[in-house]
Design a protein that fits this description.
409 residues; alpha+beta; D-amino Acid Aminotransferase, Chain A, domain 1; Dna Ligase, domain 1; Rossmann fold; four-stranded antiparallel sheet; 14 helices
């Protein structure tokens, strides 16, 4: 589950991680009121207006603005709210900005210190740091770099030597010697290292406690007065752990998600929308990946990842059918089921019910491969239904049929 920046920062604040002061608003008028409070509290002459959407690259897309007066706050927040923001990580349409975060500009200094710090050696410095799980080695890893900010993707591709990695044994946890190693690699001096130690330990505790899959801080900044602050935050929580993270489950913003994916989630279907022309319905993630590879090999492109799960019933199969049919780009549907816990005849009943219950007639070719428990019973039921279904026994037969269908459509 993706979180907004302001939600991630709310979590970090609860773990004593330093973040900039900020107020979430939904109108230009609220933005002005929030700006007045922040200007007064920080005694600075600038602040930041940040669009809150589920997409990275907001800086490059114009979703992060600096304002130096209340008039600028009003105009710039007005230009963001209610508009579609296009970034390198959104579609061509972009994402609708429904709220913005009015935040302290940690790069600037308080007015009374401006002249003192003007030529100071201690200018703000950006870094990059993220915590995520590496399933291949069964450990958490901390990725970090001296080079933070909006160009971190380019740096990771062109200068991979600038990216450091620290593996964390989940049984031992983050060790102090690892914290010091990371701090030294970032070039932090002893004066800053103490604050960084508290920061990183708190950050790692937040990552573990929230069942996060990703916790990214970009940029992480050392301020003019040697504080370590998380300027921007991206958090992704594990959907499978939300049953024990009920206070965070309410953070889900369904307006930021694909309505079809939400519908699938509520139906307990593992679904992910892709850009393709062949709909897939399978049971089991491994079989799903093999099925998608097969579709690619015969000249098609999978339009989705859809795993009905090991305890699927005929109602869930019918729901999966309906979800696939919502995609107008689908030219064929391939149902590939291994009947273990899910019996093949149950899947067959779900397919037949789909043809009878879906409002509009199914005109898209459907290829079915059922193997395992009660597969002969399932085949007989599908044959007796006299529905326009192509029943296959092997993946090669299915691939040949899909290739033939795509050539004629």
């Amino acid at each position: 589950m993706n979180l907004h920046e302001f939600q991630g920062k709310e979590i970090l604040r609860s773990f004593s991680v330093k973040i900039p002061d900020g107020v979430l608003v939904t109108t230009p008028e609220e933005a002005v009121q929030a700006a007045k409070m922040i200007f007064k509290k920080t005694n600075k002459n600038s602040l930041v207006i940040k669009a809150q959407i589920h997409a990275g690259g907001r800086g490059k897309g114009g979703g992060i603005q600096i304002a130096k007066s209340l008039e600028e706050v009003y105009e710039k927040s007005k230009n963001l709210l209610g508009k579609y923001l296009i970034t390198p990580q959104t579609s061509k349409k972009g994402k609708l900005v429904r709220k913005v975060l009015i935040s302290d500009d940690v790069y600037s200094t308080p007015n009374r210190m401006g002249e003192i710090m003007k030529n100071s050696f201690f200018s703000p410095k950006e870094y990059y740091l993220s915590i995520l799980v590496n399933r291949d080695i069964e450990k958490n890893v901390i990725l970090y770099s001296k080079e933070g900010g909006i160009d971190i993707e380019d740096i990771s591709k062109k200068r991979p030597d600038k990216i450091f990695l620290e593996e964390i044994d989940p049984f031992l946890g983050l060790q102090l010697f690892q914290v010091r190693k990371i701090g030294y690699n970032l070039g932090l001096n002893e004066e800053v290292l103490k604050d960084f130690r508290n920061f990183l330990i708190s950050l790692y505790n937040a990552y573990l406690s929230c069942d996060a899959l990703l916790l990214e801080i970009n940029p992480l900044i050392r301020t003019f007065d040697h504080q370590i602050v998380a300027v921007d935050t991206k958090m992704v929580l594990d959907d499978n752990a939300l049953f024990r993270q009920k206070k965070y489950a309410s953070f889900r913003d369904q307006k930021e998600e694909d309505p079809v994916e939400i519908e699938a989630f509520e139906a307990k279907l593992n679904f992910l929308k892709l850009e393709g022309n062949v709909g897939c319905m399978v049971n089991g993630a491994g079989l799903a990946m093999a099925t998608m590879d097969m579709i690619k090999s015969c000249g098609g492109n999978p339009s989705n990842f859809l795993d009905i799960g090991g305890s699927a019933d005929k109602e869930r199969v019918e729901k999966a059918f309906q979800i696939i049919l919502k995609d107008p780009s689908v030219k064929a549907i391939f149902i590939n089921i291994f009947g273990g816990i899910v019996r093949c005849d149950t899947v067959a009943e779900g397919i037949i019910n789909s043809y009878h219950n879906i409002d509009h007639k199914i005109k898209i070719p459907v290829i079915v491969r059922l193997q395992g428990t009660n597969e002969m019973v399932a085949k007989k039921r599908l044959e007796n239904s006299q529905l326009p279904i192509y029943y296959t026994s092997t993946l090669k037969e299915a691939a040949d049929r899909i290739k033939k269908i795509l050539m004629t459509r």
